[in-house]
Structure formats: C-alpha cells, structure tokens
Amino acid sequence: MARQKQRKTEQKTRQTDWIGVWIEIWIGLFVAFYLLYPGTQGYRAISGAKTGSFYVLFTPLFGLGVWYLIRDLRRGALRPLRTTEAAALLFLFCTLVSAAVSEHGGKAWYNAASHEAALTVCLYVLLFLIVSRWGKPTERLFRVLFWTMALFCVLCLFQAAGKNPFGLYPGELNYYDGYGVKYPGGYAGTIGNVDFISAFLALVTPMLLLRSVGQKPRKAWPCWLLAAVCLWIAVWLRVLCGLVGMAAGGVICLAVFCPDRARKRVLLALGLLALIGLGLLRTFDLPIKFLHELHELLHGRFDDTFGTGRFYIWRQMLERIPNRLLFGVGPDMVRFSDLEPFIKYENGAEIARAGITDAHCYPLQILFCQGLPALLSWLSLVGLTLVHWFRHRTEPAVRTLGGGLVCFLCAMLFCPSSIIIMPFFWLTMGLLEAETASEN
Predict the structure, then answer these.
(1) What is residue 9's predicted lDDT score, i.e. its pLDDT?
(2) Could you give the CA distance from residue 250 to residue 156 in angstroms, rounded to a whole number?
(3) CA dist., res. 255 & res. 338, Å (int)
C-alpha cells in the first residue's frame, strides 16, 4: 500500500515537472525569437512586426494556461490568488472599464496605430498570471537570455562600426545617418527605437551582473564581459533613460543587498552624497544639457524644452487629467487626444515638429489613459512584487530578477511604453513572483 502511494506521488511529481518544462520551453522560445526577430521590412515596420509576433507567440501560452487551470480545478489543487495576482486582475478590470467608457470607441480596444490598447494590456496581465503561477526561472532560461543578448550585442557592434546587417536601415544608410541626418529618429539592434533599447538594457545589464554574484571569476567572467558590452552600447546610443535607470536602480540595489547591520549607514551615506551632488549642481552650471537643466530646476526655473520636450508633454497631460481622473481617455489613446505637438525652434525658426503619442513616463501614461484606479492597482502590483523581492533577496534568481526589474522601472519613468519591450517587463515580474511563491 505504501509502495503504491509512493508511485502515485512520483507520477504526480513527474507530471508537475512536465508542466514546468512546457512553460520553460515557451519562455525560452519567446525570449530568443521575440527579441531577435526584426520583421521583414526593417525599422520602418518593426513595431507592426513585433506586435504580430507577440500575438502569435502568446497563443500557445494561453492554451497552456487554460489546460493547467482546468487540470488544477479537477484535482482541487488550484492555490488561492496571491495579492499580486489580485492586484493584476484589478488593473486589468480598470483598463477594460476605461476602454468601455472611452470616447474613442473601438480604437481603445485595438487599432493598428496604437499597439498597447486594451487587448494588448489584457495579454500582458494574462502573461504575468500564467508565468507567475506555473513558470519558474531556471538556469536554462538564463542561458537562453545570455546567448540571445550576445547575438543582439554583436548586431549592435556591427552597426556601431557603420555597417547595415540584414538591411534594417533604409537603402544604404547606417546608424549614423539617423537623428535627422538622412532619416528621422535613431534605430539600432532588433528592437529599433533607441529609447526602447536603452530601457531594455537597464533591465538586462543588472541581471547579468547580479547573476554572477557569489560565483568564481572563471564562471562569472562571461556575464561581466556581456554586461560591459551592454553598458557600452547604452552609452553609445546617447539615450539617458537606460543609464539613469541603471544608476538609480543600482543605488536601490546597493541599499537592499547590503548587510542588515550596515543598511542604516549605507542609507545615510547615500543621502549625504545626494545632498552634496544636489548642492554642487545648484552651485555650478555645467555645460552638459541634462546637468544644465537640473541646475535650472534646482533654481525653480522650468522650461517646456527640458527633457527633450518631456516637460512639455507632462504639463499638457497634467492639465487634462482632472477632466477624466477616474477612467482616463482610454488605453494608449494619447495619440488621439488632440495634444499640441512639440515644436523645436532654433534661432526663432521651426526646425522640427513631433506629434505626442506617449507620456514618456509609464505611471503618468497609465494615469492619463486608464485613470487613477488603474494607476493605484498597478502601483500596488509593483509594490507588492518588490516587497516579495526584498523578503527573498538572498535567493539568486530572486536577486537577479528583482534587480533588473527595479532598474527597468526607474528607466520607464522617462521612457515611452511599447509592445516591443513591455512583454519582457511582465515576464520578468511573473518569473519573480513564481520564484517567491515557490520559496513560500
């Protein structure tokens, strides 16, 4: 009788392991294909290509999620909702209500120009729920990420040398023809927009470094090398959001990972350094654009051009938010909200005009598009996830995922949201929740 019971237990364990394997296979394929696939028409159509591939790739995961849900219900083994899962469902509910009452009608659910409307947000939340419940961050998945990022970095290095591999740039152009030289905007890698790449590097680079903590140098050096290349690419792109994200997130990680007995001293030292830095910036007006802008802000002088027009965008949105505080204008409906375009002048003459399609600050984007309840539920989800990260920070996988998540969140305070990179945010958060749930 005992032997028969033991066989049933072993059989159930094997079935459970297979569940993890299927999810692991899907995550590995998703990371490799979604990151490296740029579409067939280069950068001019990369957003559409990524959107289509995301919807296609998500389909088997949704099927797996339904299968596992039915199986757990039949066995009576479905665990209760965690607080993070409840917060994610509340965020989804608020988003759907926002789309239902939006004056933009069907556009708020899905449209070709706006890739993060309600349907896409629904898939984001389902991705998080399925992965957090049945996924697991394994060593094999980290290896997939490592080699995928290695290929991504090699492509960027070729582009930095002035090459045009795979014909991603139009005609015979290269990276240095962008930024208005011969074509608008800056594009690189298999992600495209340099803002998105910078934010994505803020997610991956800390993960590479934190994964190597505690390892011997002969095992850790490949992660160090790849992290150094990622950091060089972030500097080469000349986009601050990723660098600011890594710097701010790095400070938070330092405070979190330091020994408990030294945490007060570390926080005090960081606070003193911040005060000294702010004092120096207020005293000296350095000839560097963003440092000059910080100097002006510390003196109470604001200008719409600060932050490459971000202050102009934020001011317009904050003025309109009280009119639709509860439900917003609809998911990702910024481009249809008749905001005044940002116009750049030089010597009194207009040299550039850009329509506003995004808040360039993810929390503000949620507040403007989906309303205050949606923002509060999203902040609850993120806050609870980070609390779980802090409680289980000694576990290698938790430390790695949480560190990357914090840096990415700091970068997204200044970066536009996009379907090209946001699935990686929800996937990372789902894997972090899966690991902390297993620890509990």
Answers:
(1) 47
(2) 24
(3) 43
Residue 207 lies in a domain: yes
**3 state DSSP class of 351:** strand
Q: In this structure, what token pair is assigned to residue 333?
A: 């409906």
CA distances, 175 to each of 38, 169, 186, 232 (Å): 16, 8, 7, 16
CA distance 309 to 360: 10
Q: What are phi and psi of 115, to 5 degrees?
A: -85, -5
User: Residue 59 has which token pair?
Assistant: 């389909």
**What range defines the domain where residue 115 resides?**
2-271+356-439
Tokens of 187: 């594009």
pLDDT at 293 over 90: no
Q: Report the alpha-carbon distance of residue 411 to residue 199 in Å, rounded.
A: 6
310 bridge partner residues: none
Is 259 a residue whose pLDDT tops 80? yes
Neighbours of 5 (CB within 10 A): 9
Asked whether 185 and 178 are in contact (CB, 8 A), the reply is: yes
CB 329 within 8 A of CB 317: no
Q: Is 394 buried (19+), middle (13-18) or exposed (0-12) by CB count in 10 A? A: exposed
3-state secondary structure of 193: strand
* pTM value > 0.90: yes
Q: Are strands 192-193 and 187-188 parallel, antiparallel or unpaired?
A: antiparallel
Count CA atoms within 13 Å of residue 422 on its CB side: 20
User: Between 126 and 6, where is the model more confident?
Assistant: 126
| Mean pLDDT along residues 240-254 | 94
**349 located within any domain:** no
Which residue has 């049933």 as its token pair?
8
pLDDT band at 347 (very low <50, low <70, confident <90, very high): low
**Total structural domains in the chain?**
1
**Domain-located, residue 73:** yes
Residue 392 domain-assigned?
Answer: yes
Quote the tokens at residue 281. Answer: 């910036």
